[in-house]
Amino acid sequence: MSIAIRKPAEIEILRKANKIVKETLNYLENNIKPGMTLKEIDAMGEDFVRSQGARPSFKGLYGFPASVCTSLNEVIIHGIPDDTKVKEGDILGLDIGTEYKGWYGDAAVTIPIGKISEEDEKLIACAKDALYYAIDIIKPGLRFKELSLELEKFIKSRGYTPLLNFCGHGIGRKPHEEPEIPNYLEHGSPKSGPKIKNGMVFCLEPMVCQKVGIPKILDDKWSVVSQDGLRGSHYEHTVVVVGNRAEILSQA
């Protein structure tokens, strides 16, 4: 496994690509209203990304047909925008990628549509809190498998379970690079595998299910739900390890 070490100049371009991602997510979160369709939300996101001089990197990636993954309610990741209207009480995952001057950014949030239930608030908080917990403990010498185990332990401590078979990832010149970073210890000892080093850039993205972590892909060939059929949540940041700690690049 070859995990790239980025130079300071490369990190600065990655910072710009990821800042555009976060600004787009902030823009959508501030402007999405009940009654909008997922396609309208996707168009808003694409227009904003392009207005910042970047390209929406998900559009056409592996055949994905849109710029924004819009994952509504029980869809945890990779939701395809359609004519469904969001309504009060929904929760909506927004996952956005950008390409800026040949470098890539990626981040995701799950947002409430209007007032949501206390149960859904806790579900969203689990993914968000797991992400920031993991970012806080990153340091050179920590193994990626140890980080995966810590994510799993955190999610389970809240009474939830991580989605299986999907993971965080390296990012840079490509939208997905080495290493793969599951939100659970997939196999082997946590003391095995590559160690985190200064200069590495990668995405962490807790994907949280309520009862069952086994995924099911819907007929559209993209939307991922849990076999329990219940709502899920998803948060993601791109981070760089510098000065022996993780810094969030996808921070507006």
List keywords for this structure.
single chain, globular, alpha+beta, 4-stranded antiparallel β-sheet, 252 residues, 5-stranded antiparallel β-sheet
How would you summarize this macromolecular structure in one to three sentences?
The protein is of the alpha+beta class. It has helices at residues 8-31, 38-51, 118-137, 144-157; strands at 55-56, 68-72, 75-77, 91-100, 103-112, 161-162, 167-170, 177-182, 201-204, 207-209, 215-217, 224-226, 233-234, 237-242, 245-248.
Task: Describe what this molecule looks like in 3D.
This protein is α+β, with helices and mostly antiparallel strands and 252 residues long. The longest helix has 24 residues, at 8-31. Helix 3 (118-137) packs antiparallel against helix 4 (144-157). The protein has four helices and 15 strands. It has helices spanning 8-31, 38-51, 118-137, 144-157; strands spanning 55-56, 68-72, 75-77, 91-100, 103-112, 161-162, 167-170, 177-182, 201-204, 207-209, 215-217, 224-226, 233-234, 237-242, 245-248. Strands 8-7-9-14-15 form a five-stranded antiparallel β-sheet.
- Mean pLDDT value: 97
Overall outline: globular
Query: What is the chain-wise order of helices and strands?
Result: HHEEEEEHHEEEEEEEEEE
Straight-line N-to-C gap: 32 Å
> Ranges with pLDDT <50 over ≥5 residues?
none
E-strand count: 15
* Helix percentage range: 25-40%
- Helical run tally: 4
The strands making up the biggest β-sheet line up spatially as: 8-7-9-14-15
| Approximate strand percentage | 25-35%
Work out the radius of gyration. 17 Å
Oligomer: single chain
* Structural classification: alpha+beta
Largest sheet: 5 strands, antiparallel
